[in-house]
Specification:
heterodimer, A: alpha/beta, five-stranded mixed sheet, 32 strands, globular, B: alpha+beta, Arc Repressor Mutant, subunit A, Glutaredoxin, 2 domains, 8 helices, 11% strand
Chain lengths: 806, 163
């Protein structure tokens, strides 16, 4: 510790800390543009010059390490003079077009010029003009306003991990941009809007929509990934105009993924359902709530009377609030029905009774940064959970942010597709889905022979025929070294037809290496949905149910089809991995009640009642994130027209069914109720329980097979109804690329698509060669809006053969 | 995407390798400047985006980092130039010693302005910052040669001597 004096007061600081950090902690204001606490120091704007005793010239506070006994003045004559001079230089080429600039009113340049600049400029020459760049659908540019602080460049290099922006040219001709015209493709690109201290980079979706001072700021929680990023919604006259991050070091730090930032656009979608609708005599009509609710109750009561309660099933979106999920299961179980689920992307449920209570990260989000070795299984982490990926990136790069620096954590992966990562990968195995299990088994076996540890003889027997190669051994070695180890299981593992085996193997590897095992919760409330018992085999807080119901996949397949469905917040035909089979099952059902915020053509084909419910900014509710943290947000705008929060709708449905204990007056009451029932739940131990696989199939070899294995990916911007309707996100590269099918380049010319009956199939989708896809596989994207049903129908079952290599 | 091997000849890559070898392992990007020089010389004095991408690929750098270097230094050209590139210094020392007169003379003789290229693609006239020959200002650089203590007569003599 050292002692320094700033403006006459003494402060303690860590040796080597930068002056600006000490001043910030002490609440002393020093103006700055290029300095950002999460980015490297570049010291190029010179705005933070301060007067340091014994230094001949003012020093930049952001790049001056403190020393014992240092005496600093931030507002002395010398400091002020320096600040004024710098400000004058910075404004020379700035257009001062504040009246038409989106940043006006919340602009660092405005504020600092006001506080530290001169009242007039002496510059009489011509100002330069810089042509704007097209950086894609999310970021709007006005490059004449740029002051070359390079925050966006450093953000790209150090946080987004893709160096797309740069400073080209020299001196007055310096330009910030991509040099060649290209869209910025990072999944975190929106943060460049936040770090830009001027109006050079602004939000395209928000552009010219409002002024900073017209808006109110309300805190909320983003539900589109397992993180539960903290956000602020900026609202004017009951309209959300934009979303910005709310700092929370433990969760999203100061960042926000583009998905969470731009999803608000879907609030105003033209597909928004504004009034309850019922289908009478085959015709849809808008109606009032009373009629619609009675119609729904009558329909469901009829089904229960004609068949029984188990002829009904309920499916919920894992992005719904905890209160909604709880009430849904209370309603369904109150009717003596056990068919309820939220795991729309899962196919293998065989170990659900042994699985942990909820899919939990196994550690705090922050702890990921400590990792020395990480094994990722089946995940395109950057796209699935952008900010968890950022934590791992920090671990991998020792916080230096530079790709070429010494690598700290060894990140390893076993994936069906060679996805692009923005962090160094120590070892990787890219294998067809059918080989993922045996690859994982090989790593387990390599670990057993390396460490001599034996978890059980049964396991040793199971692994007897498994062979290992040098990559498995290298992975085993890296996983066995180091203090803090993590195994993360992602979406491509949880949607795998042998998920239970992957889970068991991951747990064995975790046991041998004493690693944390974590599941990447797909949506904002995947954890909450399991906790509240939106599961066919367990109730709230893991209570066993007597009569195990059907799981999400069964409910939407022909053999197990039900008579009536209650759908909360989902478009089953694209949200479920049962795909278009779900569509035909629902169309054949006798009665379907949809609680949704949107109406679609498909929904109107299969539903009998559609009840308009609030989207997340319009309702209060709780989200339990991937680390098990509860976060509650309040509605920030009222629901439009006749739309109501889903918890209220479910409450009334409960009342109309005459169910007990359904008289909640606020979502807080529901939350208190959930709290009471789950208070004894402790964080699950992911390593403890697994189902012993019957066999580990190592003999699978599809070489010479005429069938292509399917790899189904959920596009980043299609994961839920709301994201699918955010127009800006729908114009990004990620969505464009989802409109094609991909096979390995080597096999491209040999592919001929035929349906199972041998007729040629028109997919309406181009087939492209892709180096990332292993031979014998085809990668395609789920949740396509249109034009996708045809092939989905033909080829959903993993064992069916609709693709042939001729 | 085309790789460096598709775009750059084996002999150029071998030349670049010599420079890479001068730096510690894992620091290949240090060779970016000689690589750009070599590639530019082989391409008639200027760099295309494709060539810069190839260098980026070969040196394991993000393409934008190569664009930054190539656009920063005045010895790299991002547009076609004439056979002889006349780089006239107009920085302080040269200006005080009469570089304005040299520039005016060059512009008149070649019939182009600073930054222009003659219609026969023989000469490009370029204004550059200090080339560290202040002792003998004014000066210009043609190819790898410095020409110092310039006068209009000396300029004519030099240009006449060029094919």
């Amino acid at each position: 510790m050292v002692k320094i004096t700033i403006n006459g007061n003494t402060y303690e600081a860590q040796a080597g800390q930068m002056l600006i950090d000490v001043a910030d902690a002490a609440g002393i204001e020093i103006p700055r543009f290029c300095y950002h606490k999460k980015l490297s120091v570049s010291a190029n704007c010179r705005m933070c010059l301060v007067d340091v005793e014994k230094a001949p010239k003012p020093l930049p506070a952001c790049a001056t390490p403190v020393m014992d006994g240092m005496v600093v003045q931030t507002r002395s004559e010398k400091a002020q003079q320096a600040q004024k001079a710098v400000m004058e230089f910075l404004l020379i080429n700035h257009p001062l077009d504040c009246p038409i600039c989106d940043q006006g009113g919340e602009c660092e340049l405005q504020d600092v010029a006001m506080g530290y600049g001169q009242d007039s400029s002496r510059f009489k020459e011509l100002k330069r003009i810089v042509p704007d760049k097209n950086l894609g659908p999310l970021i709007s540019t006005e490059m004449t306003r740029c002051i070359h602080c390079t925050r966006c460049v450093r953000f790209g290099t150090e946080v987004a991990g893709i160096r797309e922006m740069g400073a080209t040219g020299r001196g007055e001709n310096t330009r910030i941009g991509t040099y060649i015209e290209r869209a910025v493709e990072s999944e975190l690109s929106g943060n460049m809007i936040d770090v830009c201290p001027v109006g050079a980079l602004t939000s395209k979706a928000f552009r010219f929509h409002g002024r900073a001072w017209e808006m109110q700021q309300y805190p909320s929680i983003a539900p589109h990934d397992g993180l539960g990023s903290n956000i602020y919604m900026h609202v004017r006259r009951n309209k959300v105009l934009r979303v910005v991050p709310r700092e929370n070091e433990a969760i999203n730090e100061v960042w926000l993924s583009d998905r969470d930032r731009f999803s608000y656009e879907a609030l105003e979608s033209s597909e928004r359902l504004l009034h309850p609708m019922i289908k009478r005599n085959g015709k849809w009509q808008e109606t009032n709530w009373e009629t619609a609710l009675n119609y729904a109750i009558e329909g469901l009561k009829n089904i229960i009377a004609t068949y029984n309660a188990d002829a009904m099933g309920a499916l919920a979106s894992p992005a719904a609030t905890l209160e909604e999920l709880y009430l849904l299961q209370k309603l369904v179980r109150g009717l003596d029905c056990s068919n309820i689920d939220h795991r729309l992307h899962q196919i293998d449920f065989s170990d659900q009774n042994d699985a942990p209570l909820y899919p939990y990260l196994g550690q705090r989000i922050e702890e990921l940064e400590k990792s020395d070795a990480v094994l990722l299984i089946g995940t395109n982490l950057r796209k699935e959970q952008p900010l968890l990926n950022h934590r791992l990136r920090k671990a991998a790069l020792k916080n230096t942010g530079m790709i070429n620096e010494e690598i700290s954590a060894n990140i390893m992966l076993i994936n069906p597709v060679d996805y692009e990562f923005n962090l160094p990968i120590a070892e990787k195995i890219i294998a067809a889905p059918s080989k993922i299990v045996s690859e994982l088994a090989s790593v387990a076996k390599a670990l057993i022979s390396l460490t001599g540890k034996n978890i059980s003889d049964e396991i040793t027997d199971l692994l007897a025929d498994v062979s290992t190669n040098s990559i498995h051994e290298a992975m085993a070695k890296l996983l066995n070294e180091g203090e803090y180890k993590t195994i993360l299981v992602g979406r491509l593992a949880s949607t795998h037809p042998e998920f239970s085996k992957i889970r068991a193997l991951a747990a064995w590897i975790g046991k041998i290496t004493e690693a944390k095992l974590g599941y990447l919760a797909e949506a904002g409330n995947s954890v909450g949905a399991s906790l509240t018992g939106v599961l066919p085999h367990q109730g709230i807080a893991g209570h066993k149910v007597e009569n195990e119901g059907k799981n999400a996949f069964e409910m939407l397949t022909k053999e197990h089809a039900l008579k009536a469905y209650l759908l909360l917040g989902i478009e089953a035909e694209i949200d479920s991995y049962a795909g278009s089979n779900a569509l035909s099952v629902l169309e054949e059902a006798k009665f379907v009640v949809c609680l949704n915020s949107y109406k679609t053509k498909q929904m109107q084909q299969y539903a009998n009642v559609i009840l308009p419910i609030s989207l997340y900014p319009e309702t209060s509710g709780t989200y339990v994130n991937c680390e098990g943290v509860w976060q509650t947000s309040h509605g920030v705008i009222p629901p439009p027209e006749n739309v109501r929060p889903a918890w209220k709708v479910l409450r009334i449905l409960g009342n109309l069914f005459d169910l007990d204990e359904f008289n909640y007056d606020s979502s807080q009451e529901i939350q208190d109720d959930i709290h009471k029932k789950t208070v004894n739940v402790s964080l699950p131990n992911n390593l403890q329980d697994w189902k012993m696989p019957e066999s580990i199939n190592i003999a699978i070899s599809n070489e010479g097979s005429r069938e292509l294995e399917k790899i189904i990916e959920m596009p980043m911007y299609a994961i839920d109804s709301m994201v699918r309707r955010a127009t800006s996100l729908q114009n990004t590269q990620d969505i464009t690329q989802a409109a094609s099918l991909y096979v390995s380049s080597r096999q491209l010319k040999d592919i001929n698509i035929t349906s199972s009956d041998g007729t040629s199939l028109d997919t309406q989708m181009p087939i492209m060669g892709d180096e990332r896809v292993p031979d014998g596989c085809i990668l395609y994207y789920a949740a396509q809006k249109d034009g996708f049903f045809s092939i989905w129908n033909e080829s959903f079952k993993f064992c069916s053969s609709s693709y042939h290599v001729e | 995407m085309a790789t460096a091997q598709d775009i750059l000849s084996a002999s150029i890559l071998a030349e670049i390798d010599k420079y890479i070898a001068k730096y510690p392992a894992g620091r290949k990007q240090s060779a970016v400047m000689p690589a750009l020089t070599l590639v530019q010389d082989h391409n008639g004095g200027w760099l295309t985006t494709q060539l810069m991408d190839a260098i980026a690929d070969y040196l394991d750098m993000p393409p934008i980092a190569v664009y930054e270097v190539a656009s920063f230094y005045s010895m790299y050209e991002l547009k076609p130039v004439g056979k002889y590139k006349v780089c006239v210094c107009t920085n302080v020392s040269c200006m005080l010693c009469g570089s304005d007169e040299i520039v005016a003379h060059l512009e008149k003789r070649l019939g182009i302005k600073l930054g222009g290229t003659t219609s026969d693609n023989k000469f490009t006239l370029k204004e550059v910052e200090c080339l560290a020959a202040c002792g003998n200002a004014p000066m210009f650089q043609i190819g790898r040669d410095y020409h110092e203590n310039l006068t209009p007569e000396k300029v004519d003599q030099i240009l006449d001597g060029l094919e």
